[in-house]
From TrEMBL:
The keyword Protease applies. The gene is LOC107806035. GO terms for molecular function: serine-type endopeptidase activity. InterPro entries: DEGP_PDZ, DEGP_PDZ_sf, PDZ_sf, Peptidase_S1_PA, Peptidase_S1_PA_chymotrypsin, Peptidase_S1C. It holds the Pfam family PDZ_3. GO terms for biological process: proteolysis. PANTHER family: PEPTIDASE DO-RELATED, PTHR45980. Keywords: Hydrolase, Protease, Serine protease. Belongs to the peptidase S1C family. It comes from Nicotiana tabacum. This is Protease Do-like 9.
């Protein structure tokens, strides 16, 4: 039996031969070193409460794999070294051991550049267009970019009355100025005049479009607390997405990191600490979990460069056509396509679009800007990936030209250079912050139809609850002229003069005194300048409204007074 050594029995060491040593090459963390995470910052380890050891430091034994604990071999003690991770967590690596280079390269995002956005909103009242709704407040996220500017979501500052920003760790809110709002891409650009706000704040750097399975870290101020929040995940999908706020389709990233209310406008960082997108919406459904969406850097840079180039946001151009897939071989044969030709068939063309002068229905669109279009409407994107060809169109700016190749019925291949422009729908998806237009005569309230109007009248399920005639125009109708609008009788303010017409609600006005109604301004002018004995309105569903002209005009003033309406028409109609 071996002799017993004198002196105090040494404390057990986590790296001694008696300790469990992992056989993997992953870094090991000494149990005596504790890392605490608060607001995703690296906090210095607390001082050790154990009594310091006297004398020379004891050598530490490290066991090779499948070795005997009593082999007696000694190695150099491993010293913990902190490596910053993307979410701010300190990870100890071991000197003298192999460290994964990918771990060393991952850095902490510039979270001090992430700000909290406070906004007071005052939405228009589309049902009573002469007034606004009660104001309400919201909070969201944003982040600082170069040029003393801040990016956030457009829906975060929609119908804003006042916008304030608060930096991380500060108790001061700074009044912000809204420079531009891109409704289609759901991005807004802000700035702050106070120089104090920009002190100690570094701008976020943008990174490239990430690949599938790349790690992302979403930073912001979501519900559930007041301090900054960090969630992480990976890029799970890259494709053309439907932007709910703008009712458009642009490139987007799908991630599995949690995006909650308040995260809107917050940046998504990659492993290098560069911003690769802006959190803006998530999918809420009982059958899905953790599906969030991020606006990628190509869309962000398009918005920024558009603003810098034009001094204002002009929008994303689109190709004003509706097209059909050509996947059926008999359909391709009937169109005169050769076996090596691919493309999509043009069904309809927007009469107000510039390309309506060159393209024709039943043309086969073969390529856009030199990129061949497949029979399903996709184009090569990256290695092993394809994407809808509308992505190529969205990379352009309003007023840019593009080369298109089409196949006509007689197997003739034609090349055109078309000018791209933004498209206004017959039923606009948004009013770009402007109050709704209205005109009142004899208690009849006339206004124009838009998606916000339908949402106000029929709720979030307006696609099912609104009248079929209006939905058909929303989904399928093109404008025949740039200033065409859908004018409806929103409601009838009850008075003696309009007895029998009280139940007319949200019905389109087709003609006034046998003249077509082109838009609300033309209707107001025709009524104001009418010298006929009667005012006759032809409505949808073959309804007719007839009022005596002099009586209708004289009764309008009393009706406005009764309902506390300041004017019979909105300001934009007086111009």
């Amino acid at each position: 039996m071996a002799g017993r050594k004198r002196g105090r029995k040494p404390k057990s060491d986590p790296l001694s031969p008696a300790a469990d040593i992992p056989t993997s090459t992953s870094p090991h963390i000494d149990d005596d070193v504790v890392f605490s995470v608060s607001n995703v910052e690296l906090i210095d380890p607390p001082p050790s409460t154990s009594r310091p050891r006297r004398g020379r430091p004891r050598k530490i034994l490290k066991l090779p794999e499948n070795s005997n604990p009593e082999n007696g071999k000694t190695l150099k003690k491993a010293t913990p070294r902190v490596i910053n991770k993307p979410n701010g967590v300190g990870v100890a690596s071991l000197e003298g051991t192999t460290v994964n280079n990918a771990d060393v390269a991952r850095v902490v995002p510039a979270m001090d550049a992430v700000v909290k956005v406070f906004c007071v909103h005052t939405e228009p009242n589309y049902s009573l267009p002469w007034q606004r709704k009660r104001q309400y407040s919201s909070s969201s996220s944003g982040f600082v970019i170069k040029g003393r500017r801040v990016l956030t979501n457009a829906h975060s500052v929609e119908h804003y009355t006042q916008v304030k920003l608060k930096k991380r760790g500060s108790d001061t809110k700074y009044v912000a100025t809204v420079l531009a709002i891109g409704t289609e891409c759901d991005i807004a650009l802000l700035t702050v005049d106070d120089d104090e706000f920009w002190e100690g704040v570094s701008a976020v750097e943008f990174g490239d479009l990430p690949a599938l399975q790349d790690a992302v870290t979403v930073v912001g101020y979501p519900i559930g607390g007041d301090t900054i929040s960090v969630t992480s995940g990976v890029v799970s999908r890259i494709e053309i997405l439907s932007y709910v706020h703008g009712s458009t389709e642009l490139l987007g990233l799908q991630i599995d990191a949690a995006i909650n209310s308040g995260n809107s406008g917050g940046p998504a960082f990659n492993d290098k600490g560069n911003c690769v997108g802006i959190a803006f919406q998530s999918l809420k459904h009982e059958d899905v979990e953790n599906i969030g969406y991020v606006i990628p850097t190509p869309v962000i840079m398009h918005f920024i460069q558009d603003y810098e180039k034009n001094g204002a946001y002009t929008g994303f151009p689109i190709l004003g056509i509706e097209w059909q897939k050509m996947e059926n071989p008999d359909l391709r044969l009937s169109m005169g396509m050769k076996p090596d030709q691919k493309g999509v068939r043009i069904r309809r063309i927007d009469p107000t679009a510039p390309e309506s002068m060159l393209l024709m229905p039943s043309d086969v669109l073969l390529s856009f800007d030199g990129v061949d279009i497949a029979n399903d409407g996709t184009v090569p994107f990256r290695h092993g990936e394809r994407i809808g060809f509308s992505y190529l169109v969205s990379q352009k700016y309003s007023g840019d030209s593009a080369a298109v190749k089409v196949l006509r019925r007689n197997s003739e291949i034609l090349n055109f250079k078309i000018k791209l422009a933004t498209q206004m729908r017959l039923v606009p998806a948004h009013n770009k912050g402007r109050p709704p237009s209205y005109y009142i005569i004899a208690g009849f309230v006339f206004t124009t139809v838009s998606v916000p109007y339908l949402h106000s009248e029929y709720g979030k399920d307006y696609e099912y609850e609104a009248p079929v005639k209006l939905l058909d125009k929303l989904l399928h109708e093109f404008r025949q002229s740039p200033d065409e609008q859908i004018v409806v009788v929103s409601q009838v303010l009850v008075a003696d003069i309009n007895i029998g017409y009280e139940e007319i609600v949200n019905t389109q006005v087709l003609a006034f005194n046998s003249k077509p109604v082109k838009n609300l301004k033309s209707l107001a002018r025709m009524v104001e300048n009418c010298n006929d004995e009667f005012l006759k309105l032809d409505l949808e569903y073959q309804q007719v409204v007839v009022l005596q002209t002099e009586t209708a005009k004289s009764a309008t003033s009393d009706i406005l007074t009764t309902h506390c309406i300041p004017s019979a028409m909105s300001e934009d109609l007086r111009m």
